[in-house]
Amino acid sequence: xxxxxxxxxxxxxxRPEVLDAMLPFLKDEAFGNPSTIYSYGREAKKALDEARAxxxxxxxxxxxxxxxxxxxxxxxxxxxxxxxxxxxxxGRHIITSSIEHHAVLHTAQYLMRHGFxxxxxxxxxxxxxxxxxxxxxxxxxxxxxxxxxxxxEVGTIQPIKEIGHLARERGIIFHTDAVxxxxxxxxxxxxxxVDLLSASxxxxxxxxxxxxxxxxxxxxxxxxxxxxxxxRKRRPGTENMPGIIGFGRAAELAxxxxxxxxxxxxxxxxxxxxxxxxxxxxxxxxxxxxxxxxTNANFSFRYVEGESLLLSLDMKGICASSGSACTSGxxxxxxxxxxxxxxxxxxxxxxxxxxxxxxxxADIDYVLEVMxxxxxxxxxxxxxxxx
Amino acid sequence: xxxxxxxxxxxxxxRPEVLDAMLPFLKDEAFGNPSTIYSYGREAKKALDEARAxxxxxxxxxxxxxxxxxxxxxxxxxxxxxxxxxxxxxGRHIITSSIEHHAVLHTAQYLMRHGFxxxxxxxxxxxxxxxxxxxxxxxxxxxxxxxxxxxxEVGTIQPIKEIGHLARERGIIFHTDAVxxxxxxxxxxxxxxVDLLSASxxxxxxxxxxxxxxxxxxxxxxxxxxxxxxxRKRRPGTENMPGIIGFGRAAELAxxxxxxxxxxxxxxxxxxxxxxxxxxxxxxxxxxxxxxxxTNANFSFRYVEGESLLLSLDMKGICASSGSACTSGxxxxxxxxxxxxxxxxxxxxxxxxxxxxxxxxADIDYVLEVMxxxxxxxxxxxxxxxx
Amino acid sequence: MSRVYSEKxxxxxxxxxxxxxxxxxxxxxxxxxxxxxxxMRLYIQVEDGIIKDVKFKTFxxxxxxxxxxxxxxxxxxxxxxEALQITNKAVAEALDGLPAQKMHCSNLAADALHKAIEDFQxxxxxxx
Lengths: 387, 387, 128
Ligand SMILES: Cc1ncc(COP(=O)(O)O)c(C=O)c1O
Ligand SMILES: Cc1ncc(COP(=O)(O)O)c(C=O)c1O
Ligand code: FES
Ligand code: FES
Prior knowledge:
Chains A, B: Pfam families: Aminotran_5. By secondary structure, chain A is an alpha/beta fold. Chain A has helices spanning 16-22, 39-58, 72-87, 102-112, 131-137, 160-170, 230-233, 241-279, 306-315, 325-328, 335-339, 344-347, 361-381; strands spanning 4-5, 66-69, 93-97, 117-121, 142-146, 173-177, 196-200, 211-215, 283-285, 296-301, 318-319, 321-322, 350-354. In chain A, the strands form three sheets. Chain A has a seven-stranded mixed beta sheet with strand order 2-8-7-6-5-3-4, with helices on both faces. The longest helix of chain C is centred in the last third of the chain and has 25 residues, at 103-127. The N and C termini of chain C lie far apart (49 Å).
C-alpha cells in the first residue's frame, strides 16, 4: 500500500545527512563531555559551537544568543517562566494569544496561578491576532508579550514584525514560538523584532528531544533548571551532543533549501486545497488562505467526525491529524478552532494535513482520489447528514 | 599513543548495541510521534513502553512509575521543585546533604530564595552522611529529604536504605539522586525505601540528553514544565524517542552485566588505588575505602595542582577529572572535598579516575607507569615541595 | 490500526453492520455524548416482542461507530427483555475491549438501544 505522510507539523523523520553528522557522537569516536578539558572534551566543545553557529545562522542570530534546550516545550517554558521571574518587580502582566501551543498556554496558566495576570488575545475567524488588540492590551504592568509565529494547527502566519515593533517601542520583552516557522519560512530575529524565539529540531528533520531558545543579548531572563554551568549558566545538564549536532546540521540544510522547497510545497498545498474544495461538498478551509505557511492545509468536513476520518485515511496509508476531541484524549476539540469561532460540531470534523520534503505531486493525487469516497462513506453513516 | 579513558563518571560512550537499538528511530522507519493515532505513532508508543519497562526493571520499579526527562539534572529539578510545590502547604523544610551534585544543590538554593528552609547535612571525613544527622534535622515542617546514592566525585555509597526507613516512618518524601549508582551497583527502589529516584542515560553507555525520574505511585509532585499531556501529564514535550530507546537498551544491558562487571571493575580499582598509594608519596585517597562504588578512585597529590596534572595526563592519552578550582571554571575547589574537611590546598591537587567497560588491566598498568613521573615533574616545579 | 483498537473494533469500523434507518420504526433512540459531542441514533423494528430489525447512524470516533455496529448485531433477534440486559460493558467486551480513554464512547451504544426500547414501550402504551 502507498504510504503518504501528511503530518510533518507533528514530527519529521531525521534526514540521512543529519544522522551522518550525529553518528560520531553516538560512537566512541566523539563522546566527550564538552565541559571537560582533555582532548575528547575539547572536540565536543568545538562541535557544540559549530552547531550553535548553524542554528544561529538560520534565524539571523549570533551564536552566543542560542541556548539549547530539550525541545520546543522547554524553550517556551524558559521564555515565559524565566522572563516572568526575572522581571516581576517591573510588573506582573503578560500578553499572549488564545491560539498558542499548549507549551505556551499551559505555562501562562501556571503563571496565573502564581500571581501573574495574563491576557489571552482573541483571533479573527481566519486565526490571526490583530496588532490593535495587542496594543490595547498593553498596560504599565506588561512585562512580556508572547505570540507564536506560525500556528501549528491552521498554519496562519502572525504579524510578528508589527507586534515586535510595538513591544520594542514600549520596552516590553517579546517572545515568539517559532517552532512551526523556522525552516519553513524565512525567520530573522532582527527583522521580526523579537527578543526571545523558540525552535525545535524534530520539526525540521532533526532528532527529537532538542530545541533552543534564542535570547537577544541583554534580555533579562532567569534559568528554570538549576545545576551545572552549561549553556553559559542558563541551561544546566550534560549537553545532548548527538541531538545538538543533529539539530545544527538540520538547520544548515533547512536554510540552504528553504526558498526552493517553500515554492514547491506551496504549489502542492494549493493543489491539495483546491482539489479537496472542488471535489467535496460541505467542506471549509480553516485558517487564512494567504497568510499561511506553505506546508499546511486544514479542513472541516461537515457531518463527519475527525477520528473516524483519520482511521479511514490510515487504512489507505495516509497519516494526518485532527482537531477532534476524540483524537486528542482531551475533552474538548481544538482550542485553536474554537478560538476562531468555529462551532464544536464543525471543529469536530477537522483534519490537518501538513506537507514536507518527502511529499510529491503523486501523493496529492492519491489523497484527492481516496478522500471523496472516505467522506462519502462516513457521511452515509452520519445521523446529521441527509442528502 | 595509548588512550585510556578514566572519566566514566563524567560521561560514557554509547555502546554499539545501544546505537543499533536507536537507529530505526533516527531513520524514516520509525520516526512517529507516540501521541498520534496512526500506524507510525502506534509503533512509537509501543517502543516507548518497552523502553520504560526496561528502565523500570533495572531499579525494581513498575513501568508506570518511570517518567522520562532530558537528563539527570532535569530529574533532580523535578524531584525537588515538583515536590516542594506540591507539598508546601504541609511545610517548607527540606533536608539534603552538602555533597550533592549541583543539580540538587543549586535547586535547593533556588528553593531557599523562594521561602523554603534547607538543611545541608555535613558529612564525615570519608564523605558519608550520618543517619543520626538526618534524624536530628527532621522537623514537623520537613516535606522532603534528598540524599544522593553514590557521590560523583568520591564514590561513597550513602546509607540510603536507613535514611529511607526514617523518612517513611515520619511520612516524609524521600528522593535519591542515583545518577552514579544505577547500573553500577544493585539499585532497588523498594529495598532502598525511596519515593523518588533520578537516573541518567549517558552514565550507563546510553545517549546524552535523556534520563528519568522514578516517582513512587501516590507521591505528591507537580510538573515543572508545562505543555502537552506526554508522560502522563508529568513531563510535556514530544518524547526524545531515539534517546529513550537508547536509554532503555542501555539499562537492559547494564542489568544483565552488572554482577560480573562490578566484580571486574572493583579488582581494577583496587589495583589502581593500591598501585598509586604504594608508588607515590604524599598522596591520599579521598572517600571511604569500603563504602565505595567499584568504579571510583579519587586521590589528592600534595604539592601538585589538579589542572596541571590533568593536562599532563592528557598528554599521555589519559582522561581523568579533577576537583581543582582551575578545572571547573568556578572559584572554589570541589565543594564535596571541602565538605569532607579536606583543606583547600589538598583539594586543589585532587584527581578523579573513574573506570568503565572499556578499561583493562593493561590500562591500569599504564597509568601506574606514567603517574609517578608526572607527579614528580610537577612537584619539581612546585615552590611548596621541598624534598 | 489493530494496536489502538482491537481487530474486532477495526472490523466493525470498516464494515459496520446494519447502517441506515428504518422507516416507521417501532422505536428510535438518540443519544449524544456530552463529552465529545458525538451522536448516535438507533432504530428498532419490534414484532411479537422480538427485535426483528435494527439500524443505526452514528457521528463519532472509531470506537463509537464500532460499538454502534456491535450493539446492533448483539440485539438482532433478541426479545425486549433480553435486549434490556445488554450493558455498555458487554458491548465493549464483545469488541475485545476498548482503550481506556475510549471507554466513554461505548456508553453511546447500549444507551441508544435502551432509549429506543423506551420509545417503543411509550408508543405501545399510547397505542393501547
Ligand atoms: C507551535 C509549537 N510550539 C511548541 C511545540 C513543542 O515542541 P516540542 O515537541 O519540541 O516540545 C510544538 C510541537 O509540538 C509546536 O507545534
Ligand atoms: C550525581 C549526579 N547527579 C546529576 C547529574 C546530572 O546528570 P545529567 O548530566 O544527565 O544532567 C550528574 C552528572 O553530571 C551526577 O553525577
Ligand atoms: S465518541 Fe468521541 S471519543 Fe469516542
Ligand atoms: S591558577 Fe589558573 S585557574 Fe587556578
